[in-house]
Each structure stands twice: as structure tokens, then as C-alpha cells.
Amino acid sequence: MKVSVGLSVLIALILGINAFGQKKILGPEVYNSWNRIGDVQLSQDGKFSAYSIKPYRGDGYLYLVNLASGKKDSVARGYEPKFDEAGNYIVFKIHPGFDTLRKAELAKVNKDKWPKDSLGIWFVQNDSLVKFDQVKEFKLSEKGNALAFLSTKNEWPKGYLTKGEAKKEQKHEKKKGKIKTDGKLLTLIDPISKQKKCFKNVTQFELSKDGNYTVFLQQEKFKKDSVRLGIYDFSKKEVWMDKKRVSEYAGINFSGKNNSLLGLATVDTASNKRWSLFVIRPDTKEFKQLIDTSMQFANEEVLSSNFKPYLNNNDTDVFFGVADRPEKPVKDSLLESEKSKVDLWHWKDDRLQPQQLVELKRDQSRTNLAVYHLNSGQAVVLGNDSLVVQSTERFDQQVLLANCDAMYRYATWHTMNPTNYYLIRVSDGKISTLRERTFTRGFLSQGGKQFVFWNERAKNYYLMDVDSQIEECLTCSWKGNFFEDKNGMIEEDEPQGIIGWGPNDGNLFIQSDKDILSYDIASKTLRSITSILQNSDMDTNYTYSLFNLNPDSVRYYPESTILTRFSKLSKMMDVYRVKGSFSNPNFELISGSNHHYFNFLKAKKADQLLFNRSSNSDFPDLFATTRPGAEIAQISRANPQQSQYNWSTVELIKWTSYSGIPLEGLVYKPENFDVNQEYPLLVYYYEMYSDDIHNHYAPKPTASIIYPTEYASAGYVVFIPNIRYAAGHPANSAYDCILSGTDAVLKKYSNVDSKRMGLQGQSWGGYQTAQLITMTDRFAAAMAGAPVGNMFSAYGGIRWGSGYSRQFQYEHSQSRIGKTIWDSPELYVENSPIFGLPKVKTPLLIMHNDEDGAVPWYQGIELYTGLRRLQKPVWLLNYNGDDHNLMKPANRMDLSIRMRQFFDFYLLNKPEPLWLKEGIPAIQKGKKYKYELTE
Predict the structure, then answer these.
(1) Which of 132, 521, 679, 917 shows its CA 20 to 30 Å from the CA of 392?
(2) Alpha helices in 727-824 (DSSP H)
(3) What is the C-alpha R_g of the chain?
(4) C-alpha closest to that of 303 among 271, 273, 281
(5) What are the E-state strand segments in 304-458?
(6) Phi/psi-derived region of residue 152, left when phi > 0, alpha when psi is between -120 and 50, beta in every other case
(7) Among residues 254, 229, 387, 267, which one has the least CA distance to residue 309?
(8) H-helix or E-strand containing 82?
């Protein structure tokens, strides 16, 4: 036996970079260098755009684009850009470099001594760059020119102090010693005027939205922490320091129309702190304590630091949080080793113990909403422990929507438990019932006058006038379909949902299966807003979506709304801007093509629009346009090297299943597909994929699945079929759809080798893989990621990521059994791979990780131990400490290599890797990876 060595040699051998003429094959060797786009920003005037292009591993560039001229500038390692209000400059961080930090880590340098980020300011008019070293964080005001950044050090900039100031500080330090603090240097700067102000010992800072003020906290350590609050006025160039010192501040922020400063303060040092609530007018420096530490609310609740207070209702109300009084620490004389640690699962618990543990931090930090009325000086608690109150500072709220599901929570075996909805009056906290046992989300209009809900009995949307509580049906006249496609899941019909409200709450947008509806509140009429785009009333070939381009508004306005239309037949997408009013809308086409359009971003003060556009062959680069009919300019080219590689093509295939179901699927072929050459077939699946024909699969390490472009590049044909399920029989449904689809591919492509076919799926797809190899021997290799092997034991298991019981999944959700194990045990036998293992003839590679939060990893173990006992070829990959889908980059790279080697050995007749042949004993773990190929 001969063994080749080295990962780079391995990749060259298994990929054969010249195997397809001059174009190279995609594989693990390209992952690190393939780029992605992020940090997309658009100046408010629409003249400039910024974005970063970064490789999977390594350093990238920040690009600044003049959208009028197309001129492009770049800064190495720049990221997190932000434009100022006027578009005069852009602020961003500069990373110290991937290799720089990697070398520091390899050398085991203390992390505090690693190289730190820098701050860059690029002035767009004269193309000049200013840098500041050693920066921890920065903030830029929404308006004006206020920029603040915190350094990683606590030292004055060179030359900042005069000789006299420096001498005075040295004298003070010599007399009283150097101040001990966790704080760092805060720099306040106006990038236009270049005026700068610095403060030492700062731990936290915030900028007002108008850019007039910054608040900062200075910490000094004496016998106990001492924190002081300061406010800097950018216009007056003055600083105000509070004379009082406290041990801690919380929730410090500028809020309201007048940018008042709100916060909580405490002088306590113990863990059971008591807080006071205050407000400061930054212009007058008027300090007002609203609630002191002695204030106690209902049920002995006190002020909580876990809720950031805010102003609302024309700056007349301060909303804050209250919670149970903190318990004093319990002192005892026991050692930790003498204390038992036990979780008690009680049968009357409304939440399972694992769910309680997952949600423990949330429960510990939970607060009840309260309000302080500035005009009357009265404080009112607006909620209680069982209510979830929906509050926001984005618009005025005189009434609040709240819901409670406590009385229904016990039934953890349901996917849709009901909730009760209530209305809370802000003025006095009065709670009134709106509707009980509501199974889908309810919506309150921004003005608080209308409540919209889905009536599960009538199967229609209703609107309730909250004052009179009179209900009217919104959609009873509509004959279309509102429901999501459950595809065989056994649960209540669920509508696709409410999209949102129009101007002044005058209309409501409702998502239909093949339409978007608008209900006019005044005229009480329902109409389709997309009818003008439809060929007839019966045109159901399209799906529609609305996008709100104004992130500052919860309402939809025509001038800031995008409509997309997707053809279910051609898979083409059109993008429209709304013209006119929603009562009589027209739509102007921005773009339409065989692409997927997404991530729409509009300039705040201009018509400039950015979006990503992708297809199988087109990376989702950035495009810009100003209006319908205007030129669409591509402003990024992230991966020009793609042309050097043998890519994939994709086409839609249609067939009829064995049971007569019309189906669709996607077939990916090598770019240089040759009808005279034989190809192996790799089948991947989950549920429904055909509408994702424009997904772009950029090369990258996999978290769990095969990427069709990479495998097609290597000489595979990849087939992704849609699967339609019959309730109670998911296994037979998968067989019916996948096998019939495979036959359709073999019939259409006679040069696909039926003896070299493989299966791959993850999670639900992993289950289907494990099940299929017990039902057919047509496949030469199979890989199952996180599969359920035994529906009996899985039914009684826990989804450890959420703490939920898995019972709901089998009775109502994806597993589609529809019965309990006691009612229909035969269905659990029928659909459990473990009972068919003696029939398996296909080699199986399993990945199941010991920190899987969705499917307990013992499911993979049951499959492995069963096949091992039966002496069937089986391998189990357990990536220690990793999740359902791999999260750690090193593990993703390892899986990508092993899965590719596995299929290459069985389907491409490549040499067998050592790990597949010999395994890796525990004594060699972490020392040998055995990627080497045998000959």
C-alpha cells in the first residue's frame, strides 16, 4: 500500500485541477480565497455606496463607490462603515490583519497585547484618509458631525496636553498615585472642523441623535468603584460633570424629541442593588430624579436595570422596567462539594425543566413594563409576570397590546398553542380583554384603534374596533387562499400573515398565497393591489412580496415600498416600485430577469436604490439604480476568478411520481457537460427546492450538506427533487418522489450511470437518507447528517437547543406522523430506519454531533451501532462540542474534505482515503487525520 501525504497534495490529487481542459475544478483549496460581500451602506443623499469584500479566511477590502461617476476607492482591511448625514465622509474600522492576529495567537501572546483595530475617516471630496490607532469602538451621530471613539488605551494623545497641564497631572499622580480604572480614552471629534476633545477613564458613552451632545461615564477605583457622569456640548464646546458619584449606571441613553438623557443609578455594591431613575435636560443640565431607591411597586417589585428606559408620547411619558426585589445572597458554611446539584422535573411544570434551563437567563432578566407620567408625577405598572407587552419608542403609544399564553403552555406537544390578547391603557394601566384563545399573531394599529386577528373557526381575518369591540370580517368576500403550504404536516391551517399598515392606518396589507390584499378601513373594502399585474382573476402563477424601504417607519408608504413578483412557472422575478396611492396603485418595473433579488436599500433623501442579484452562475453582487427605466449598474465584482473554474448549469425538470403527483426538481450539471461521457448522480433533498433555482452556491466549507456547484464542477450530476408528503407516511412519500425523480433524470440523461448513484441529506434530509437505504439498494453510497433513526426514542426525546419536547414534531410538524406512539405504533415502525437495517446494502456515512440542539445525537448512534452489529459499512463523524449544523470553521473544512472523499471513492472510483479504510483510533485523535489516499 502506498500513501500520499499532505493536505495540499491530497486536494490536488482528488480534484485534478486540469481534468476538464483549461478550467479548474472547485474544491477545498479555493474555500479560503472565495469572497463574500458585507457592510453595505448608502449615503443619505444617494451619491456614495460602501461595502466590504472579504475572503472566507484572510483580509478583505472596504470599497467606496461614487455612484454617479463609478469611481471606486478601497481601504485594506476596512469594515463596519458609516456615512455622516451630509455624505462628506465615511467612518470605519481597520482590522489589524488576519495573519497578524494568527501569529500572535500561535505565539500565545496575551490577548490584551494583540494588535488592535484602527479607525479610518475617508473624506470623499478630496479622497483623503485620516487614521487613529488602537480603537475599541466608535459611534457617529445620525445628524450633524459628532464622532466619538473609545481607545483600547487610557493615555492622552501625543501633544494633546500643554506642558502646564502635563506637569499638573504628573504632580497629582505623584501625590495621590495613578488612578486605577477600567476606563479608556474617549475622543470626541468633528471631522469637518477637526476640533477634538478627549476624556480619560471612560467606560461607556452615547451620542444624541442630533449630534449636539455626548454622555460619558468615568470610572475610578477606590475602596469601591466610583462612577461619574459627564455631558459634552458639541456646539458650546463645554463639558458638564455631575458632582455626584455612584457605584454604577445602567440604561444610559438619549431619548425623546428633545434628546433628554435617561438612566438608572445605584450606590449599592452588593449583588442585590437598588436603583433610582433620573432624567437630565442636556441643554440646561437640569437633573430630576423621577423614582428613588425606596420606591416599591405592586408585589414588592422595584426598579430593574434590565430595561433601558425611554421617552414617548410627545416626551410626556418615561417607560421603564420593574422586577422582583433582588434576593440577598445566602451565606452558608457548606463547601461546593457538599451541595447537591439536581434538576427536578415536575409533572405539573408548565415548561419542561430543559426549556426552563435554556430560558433561565431570559427569566432572570425579565421585567414588567411601567410608565412614569411627567405631567402628574404618577408611576403606573403596565404589565405583570404573565403578560408579554408590546412596546416601542418608534411611535407614540397611548394603549399597548399584550398577550398571555401561560394557561396553554403546558401542552408542549402542540405546535400552535393559543394565546389571549389584552389592551393596556397607558394612562392608568387598565387591562381589558381583546380576544381569548387566538392561535396566530394579533396586530394592533399604530394609532391603537384597530386590532386585527385571524379567526381560526371562520378561517378569515377580522378587525376589531378597540373602543366598541365591534368586529367585522375583512376577508370573507375573498375566495383566494391565505394558507401556508403545510405539505402533509398535521396541524391547523395557518395564514401567511399580516404584512403591515399603510399611511395613517388607513389600510391594512394582507398576504395571500398568490396575491397581496389591501383592506381600506374607511370604505370597508378589500381589493387586490396586484390585480393590474395579473392576466386574469384566476392568474395564480405568481407569488408577491412587499418590502418597506424606510427602516424608521413601521408603516408602508408608496414612495418607499418595493413589490416583487415571482413566477412559479418560469422562476423569473420582477421588481417594481409603487407609483401613486395604495388605493389606486400602479407599478413601475425596475428590473426583471431569471435572478433572485434581495437586500433592497434606499437612500434616505434620494431615489438611489441598492440590491443584490443572484443566480446559479451569478454571484450576488451589488447593483444600483435610481428609478424605473434608469440604468442598472453593477457596482461590485466580488469573485472575478469564477470564470477560471468549471462551474455548474442548472435546469428545471418535471415528472410525475409513481403515485401520480406532478413534481419539479433541479438538475445541476458540469458547465462542460459532455453527452458522450458517463457521470455519477448525487441526489440531495430536504422538502421543496425548485423555487430556489436562482440560489448561488459560492464555494465554502459546508456545515452539513453538499453544494451542487462544487460537486458538478468535479464531474457529478446533482439532482434536487421536490418531495410531497402524505400524512402518516413520510418514508413512502420520500421514496415515491425521490426514486421517481431519479428515474426521470436517468431517462432524460442516458449518460448518467445508474450504478454510480449517491444520496445526501441533513436533519430531515438525513432521516430520509437513512430511511431510503432500508427501502432500496439502488444507491452506491449515502451520507446522512443528524438523522433520526428511531422515531420511538426520538419521539420521547428533547430538542436540547430549545428544551422543548420532540413530541410535537411527530404529531403535528415535520415528521408528519399525526399520531402518538400509543395510538399508532405501527406508523412509527413503518417510518423508523432502525427496523429496516438488515436490508441495507448501501455504505453509510453519518455525521451526528454531541452538542446537537435539534436531533439528539443518540439517534445517529442507534443507526451506527445497529449497522455495525450487522456488519454493514458505516462510519460516524462526531464533531466534539459542535451543533446540529457545524459552527466551527475547522470542523466545516474537515467535513467538506471527508464527505467529498467518501463520494469520490464510491462514485468516481477515486482512491480510498485512509480514514475510510482504517478509521482513526482514539489514541490518534487530533494527531492524525488520515486524509491521505491509498493506491
Answers:
(1) 521
(2) 730-748, 764-772, 791-795, 807-811
(3) 31
(4) 273
(5) 310-312, 317-324, 368-373, 378-381, 388-390, 399-404, 419-425, 431-438, 443-444, 450-455
(6) alpha
(7) 254
(8) strand 78-83
Calculate the CA 338 to chain-centre distance: 43
Q: Which residues contact 68 (CB under 8 A, 6 or more apart)?
A: 47
Q: Which helix (H) or strand (E) holds 894?
A: helix 889-907
Task: Decide the pairing of beta strands 752-762 and 679-684.
Answer: parallel
Residue type, 287: F
Q: Does the predicted TM-score (pTM) go above 0.70?
A: yes
| 135, three cell numbers | 480603537
**Which residue(s) pair with 255 in the sheet?**
260
DSSP at 327: P
d(CA 693, CA 704): 20
For the record, the C-alpha cell of 114 comes out as 494583540
Amino acid, res. 522: A
Q: For the chain, how many residues are written?
A: 935
Exposed, middle or buried by CB within 10 Å (0-12, 13-18, 19+), for 164? exposed
Rounded-to-integer distance, Cα 252 and Cα 279, Å: 10
The model's pLDDT over 138-170, given as tens digits with 9 standing for 90+, comes to: 999 999 999 999 999 999 999 999 999 889 988
pLDDT tens digits, one per residue of 253-301? 999 998 999 999 999 988 889 999 999 999 999 999 999 999 999 888 9
Measured CA to CA, the distance from residue 35 to residue 19 in angstroms comes to 24
Beta strand pairing call for 525-528 and 515-520: antiparallel
> What values do phi and psi take at 420, rounded to 5?
-100, 140
Containing 93, the helix (H) or strand (E) segment is strand 89-94
